[in-house]
Amino acid sequence: MNNAIILTEVDRQILNSYANFLHGLANYLGDAYEIVLHSLEDYEHSVVAIINGEHTGRKIGAPITNLALDMLDKLVDSKQDNISYFSTNKKGEPLKSATISIRGENNRIIGLLCMNLYLNTPLVDVLNLFMSPQQQIHFPSSKESFVENSSELIESSLKNIKAKVDADNSISVANKNKVIISMLNSYGIFNIKDSVIKVAELLNISKNTVYMHLRNANESNHV
User: Fold this and answer.
1) pLDDT level of residue 105 (50, 70, 90 thresholds)
2) Which residues, 6+ apart, have CB-to-CB distance to 48 below 8 Å?
């Protein structure tokens, strides 16, 4: 069996950063998943964060399980960072599980992120995750573009912003390019190499005009 380790301050900061990650992951995956964060500093109270702990009856401060220690041994021996397997809870109910190593200073494994999918979850509850509006943020007018290079990113961003600006009747025709460039700037598009040239070409204006609008936008932000 592995022995508990002494964590450094950096190690603890790394583990703490995963606590927020757990909430976001649980919000995405839904109630069928139990997600547990273990610290390897104290086996008797290894659970430092847990979501949907009712599936295994655990709370913060619970000890590490023998199965988690077994998975830790396998991770160390195989030099892998994750392993998936099937298990059961106290009631004998089936779980599909995964154990992921968390590494700290000097690449030591300092914690474990464990996920357990409760396989007896009614199908209707799983489907509700994809349909329920609760705790979901919707962007009906937004479309995510999956691009292959920076040029496509600039073109896609410009296309989306231009469509919004063109549809806004409160923006005069003379100011549309100014607003488009200001919005692109706020997105950080102009941090991309040669973006000024690309935007100028797409808007059919000169590079100097793009630079002028950028200067005006930056001056307005510093007023």
Assistant:
1) very high
2) 15, 19, 37, 38, 39, 60, 111
pLDDT digits (tens, 9 = 90+) for 135-168: 454 444 455 555 568 888 888 889 989 999 999 9
Pairing between β-strand 47-51 and β-strand 82-88 as defined by DSSP bridges? unpaired
**Is 40 domain-assigned?**
yes
Q: Which residues make Cβ contacts (< 8 Å) with residue 148, sequence separation at least 6?
A: none
End-to-end alpha carbon distance in the chain = 62
Q: Per the domain annotation, does 57 fall within a domain?
A: yes
Distance CA 88, CA 29 (A): 20
24/113 same-domain check: yes
Nearest by Cα to 213 from 172, 176, 178: 178
Calpha distance 123→125 (Å, rounded): 5
Helices (H), ranges, the chain = 9-29, 66-78, 123-131, 150-167, 176-186, 195-203, 207-221
**């590079």: which residue's tokens?**
207
> In the listed set 85, 101, 131, which residue is the last one of a domain according to the structure?
131
What is the model's pTM?
Answer: 0.62
Total domain count for the chain? 2
Is residue 206 domain-resident?
yes
* Closest among 162, 205, 155 to 183, alpha carbons compared: 162
What CATH number has the domain bearing residue 85? 3.30.450.20
For residue range 60-72, list pLDDT tens digits in order.
999 988 888 888 8
